[in-house]
Design brief:
This protein is of the alpha+beta class. The protein folds into 2 domains: 234 residues, BirA Bifunctional Protein, domain 2, CATH 3.30.930; 71 residues, no CATH class. 33% of the residues lie in helices and 23% in strands. Helix 3 packs across helix 4. The relative contact order is 0.14.
């Protein structure tokens, strides 16, 4: 399955369940409290908090996202890990006061196991430590054994966009990649997610957090899910990391062509391979930002783009390009 096919399968699945297919918004958000769109729900924030009436009750999208700067910042991790990217696409299905956990949870399992062919016996679930309802749905309706459902606290299973805004407990789907990636024990014993890798987060939007930290209930409980396209693509294509997918591999091939260096797949100690991952990702994220109207400067978004370009150039020089 290619990236295009994966994206289409996600959107098509939820379109058949009466979700309106919404095109990606710009990377530049309407929300002045953040620099970039960092999650699929951001274009819908006003719907979740009740400031605007949504034109539809259900939506599905593949949202362009950038996480570089502020609370959500993956810039310095790019190239060092198997899955961190500055620019990525977030697949998501959304309910604005329509359905809640009773539909979101079974649908996610059906898509993952029936449409994408994931082995249900390799899937683990985490829920918030207080969420009896989500645990019951996963176990009693979906059929996940209790020994593969784990409860975690706010740090892992409570989602909020930032210091303010919509938030709520969440439930995550993880896949067991096998003993070669780490010890047994489930996500609870694998905080880095090397063996039990999280790939889909179901957020149960129930509150709006104020600057003082207080939380008020939203007008209607809603659903916000987020699944990283590149991360799922690596699983679907059976490769070890996002770098070997059909989205990133062509960029690495081009980096090899430009620099005359060889890329060593899966080698995270080799300096040249690290540099080429940085070059490939930053060329992609920089191009996406410029396409949406961001230009290098000394302030805000422009400064972030400047850092991305500067980091790419530094590693390009290290690889011998001029």
């Amino acid at each position: 399955m290619t990236a295009d096919q994966l994206r289409d399968s996600f959107r098509g699945y939820f379109a058949e369940k009466d979700h309106t297919m919404v095109p990606s918004a710009s990377l530049i958000p309407h929300d002045p409290t953040v620099l970039f769109n960092i999650a699929g729900m951001m274009p819908f924030k006003s719907y979740f908090v009740g400031d605007e009436k949504p034109p539809y009750k259900r939506a599905v999208s593949s949202q362009k996202c950038v996480r570089a700067g502020g609370k959500h910042n993956d810039l310095d991790d790019v190239g060092r890990t198997k899955r961190h990217l500055v620019f990525f696409e977030m697949l998501g299905n959304f309910s604005f006061g329509d359905y809640f956990k009773e539909k979101a949870i079974p649908w996610s399992w059906d898509l993952v196991t029936e449409e994408w062919g994931f082995d249900g016996d390799k899937l683990w679930i985490t829920v918030h430590e207080s969420d009896d309802e989500a645990e019951a749905i996963w176990h009693e309706i979906v059929g996940v054994p209790m020994d593969r459902i784990q409860r975690l606290g706010d740090a892992d299973n409570y989602w909020q966009m930032g210091d303010t805004g919509p938030c709520g407990p969440c439930s995550e789907i993880h896949i067991d990649r096998g003993p070669s990636f780490g010890p047994e024990g489930g996500p609870l014993g694998d905080p880095a997610g090397d063996r039990f890798m999280e790939f889909w987060n179901l957020v149960f939007m129930q509150f709006d957090q104020s600057p003082d930290g207080s939380r008020t209930p939203l007008p209607k409980p809603s659903i916000d899910t987020g699944a990283g396209l590149e991360r799922i693509l690596a699983l679907v294509q059976g490769v070890d990391s996002v770098w070997e997918t059909d989205l990133m591999q062509p960029l690495l091939d081009e980096a090899c062509s430009i620099t005359g260096r060889s890329y060593k797949v899966g080698d995270y100690e080799d300096r040249d391979s690290f540099a080429m991952r940085v070059l490939a990702e930053h060329a992609r994220s920089g191009a996406m930002l410029i396409n949406d109207g961001v230009f290098p400067s000394n302030e805000a978004r422009g400064y972030v783009l400047r850092r991305i370009i500067r980091r790419a150039v530094r590693y390009a020089y290290m690889l011998g390009t001029e």
